[in-house]
From TrEMBL:
Domain EAL: 262-514
Regions crossing the membrane: 232-255
GO CC terms of this entry: plasma membrane
Membrane topology: Multi-pass membrane protein
GO MF annotation, one: cyclic-guanylate-specific phosphodiesterase activity
Its EC number(s): 3.1.4.52
Organism for this UniProt entry: Winslowiella iniecta
Catalytic activity: 3',3'-c-di-GMP + H2O = 5'-phosphoguanylyl(3'->5')guanosine + H(+)
Protein name as annotated: cyclic-guanylate-specific phosphodiesterase
Keywords of the record: c-di-GMP, Cell membrane, Hydrolase, Membrane, Transmembrane, Transmembrane helix
Superkingdom of origin: Bacteria
Amino acid sequence: MRKKRERSWLVLLAAGLLPLILGILFTFIAAQRTEQRQLETTAEVVLNHAENLSDHAWDMVRQLEKYDPRACGYIGKDIQRIGSVTAYFRSVGLTKNNDVLCSSAYGQHPGTIEGMIRMPLPTPIPDRWIQSVAGTAGAPQRPAVLFFRQQPMGYGAFALVDGQYLLDFMHALGMPRAYQVSIQFNHGYRIETGHIAAENHLLFNSLVYRTTSARYPVTISIISPPSEALKAWRQVFLTFLPMAAILSLLFMALVSNWLKRRLSYHDELRRGIANNEFSVNYQPVYDISSVSCAGAEALLRWQRRDGEWVRPDVFIAAAEAESMIIPLTQHLLELIAADVKQWDVPPGFHLAINVAAEHLQHPCFVSDIRQFATTVAEKSLVIILELTERSLISEGQEVAEKLSLLRREGIEIAIDDFGTGNCSLSYLQTFELDYLKIDRGFINAIESVDGETPVLDAIINLSHKLALQVLGEGVETPMQLEYLKNHGVMFIQGYLYARPMSSEALAHWLTNEGRLPLVSGLSDDASAPL
Ligand SMILES: Nc1nc2c(ncn2[C@@H]2O[C@@H]3COP(=O)(O)O[C@H]4[C@@H](O)[C@H](n5cnc6c(=O)[nH]c(N)nc65)O[C@@H]4COP(=O)(O)O[C@H]3[C@H]2O)c(=O)[nH]1
C-alpha cells in the first residue's frame, strides 16, 4: 500500500510536470522557427536593397555610355557632376580596356581599373562585370562594388558604388538583433557588419541563412547568435507560462481525482469483502436432452452498505484493474460453498464459476479450485470453470497444464462469450475443453427458426467437430430456443428459462420447476434480483 501511494505521488508529479515539459519543448521549437523567419525577412530586405542599388548602378553605366570617351576633355565636367550629385557612387567614369580615360574622382588623370580597385581584372576582360572589392585607390579601407560594361571596340563605362551605403543599411538592420550580415557580389570581397562571438550554448546554436538574387550575382548571408534564439525562447515561454501553470493544475486535479477513485475502489472492494457486501446469484441452465435443469452459473453481486447495487461488469473490471480479482474470487468460492450446503441437488448438478485471467495465471489457482472442490465434494457437483478467450492468450502452456491437471480431477472447462475475443482459434486444439458458451450477441442475431446465421452456424459446427458441448447464452425467445435445438445445441441459458436468482430462490426453484420441461413463452420469474 505504501508503495502504491509513493507511485501515486510520482504519477501526480509527472502529471504536473507534463505540461511544463511539453511547453518547454513546444516553445523551444516555436522560438527557433520565429528566429529563422526573422533571419529570412532581414535577408530579403538586404537583398532587395542590393538589387535596387544594382539597378541604379546599371542605369548610371547606361547614362555614361551616351558620352564619347574620346572627348573626355569636353565632357569631364559633366562626368564629375553626375558622379558627385548622384547618391551612392564613389566614382563613375569612361574606360578603354583597362585604362580609365576620365572619371568623376580623378578627372583626366591617367589610371587603370586594376589600379583603382587594387586587384587584377579577369582575362579576357568581360563585357559586363560586377565585383565587390575591399577598397579602392582613393579609399583603401572602405569596400566598394564595381559595375563595369565594355563595348566591342574596347570602350566602356563604370560605376563604383560606395560600400559604406551598404554597411550602414546592413548595420541598421542587423544591430538590434546582434546579427552578422554580409553581402558578396560575384564571389568578391565580403562586405560585412556585426560579429558573432564563438559562444557555446547548451541548447541553441547560431542560425545561418543564405540567399541569392535571381537577377544579379549577389549573395546575402545572415548569422544570428545563440543568445538571440534564447531571447526569443524566453519571450515565447513567458507568454506560455501562465497557460502551462493552469494546465499543470488541471492535469494534477484530474489525475488526483482518478487516483483517488482508483485507491478508493481498491479499498472499497477490500472493505466490501470484509463487510460481507457480496452475494451470489445463480442462473439455471437448461438441458434440452433431459428436458430439465442441468445446473447453474454463479454470478457475483455487490450491494454496498448504503444499499446501492454495483453492476458486475463495473466491479469485476475494477477488481481486475486493482489486482483485487483473486481475493474477490476466493471470497466468491467461500460464498458459493456456503450456499451449496443449503441445496438439495442431484449428483452431477453443474455449477459454473467465472474465472478471471489473472487468477488462472497465478500459482494459487489450482489449490484454490481444489480446496473449493473438496469443500463441496459431498454434493457430487460437476464444477465447470468458465474462462474467456482472452485469459488463454498469455502463458498458454502453463495454463494448459493447470487445466489438464484439474480436468483429470473431474473439473470441466468452458469457454465463455465464445466469438467475442480476438484470439486465434488454435487454442481450441491446444487446450482441453468441454463446453463452448456462445455469446448472446450471436443468439440475438437469430431472426427466424429457418433463417441463416452463418457465423453462429459455423461456431456450432466447429464445436460439434471438436466434440465440444455447446451452450447458448442469453436465450430470450422461443424462436431462438427452437433454432438452437434444431442445430443440435443441447444447453441453453437465458431469461426464457430462468433469470439469475439468490441461493434461497434457487433452492426453491429447483424443487418446484427444476425438473419441469421448458415451455415456450418468456419466463415470468422477473421478481428474482438480476
Ligand atoms: N440480456 C440478457 N442477459 C442475460 C440473459 N441471461 C443471462 N444474462 C446475463 O448475462 C451475463 C452472463 O454472464 P457472463 O457472460 O459470464 O458475464 C458476466 C461475467 O463476465 C462477469 N461476472 C459476473 N459474475 C462474475 C464472477 O463471479 N466472477 C467473474 N470473474 N466474473 C463475473 O460479469 C458479466 C456480467 O454479469 P451479469 O451482469 O450477472 O450478467 C450475466 C447474466 O445476468 C438474457 O437472457 N438476456
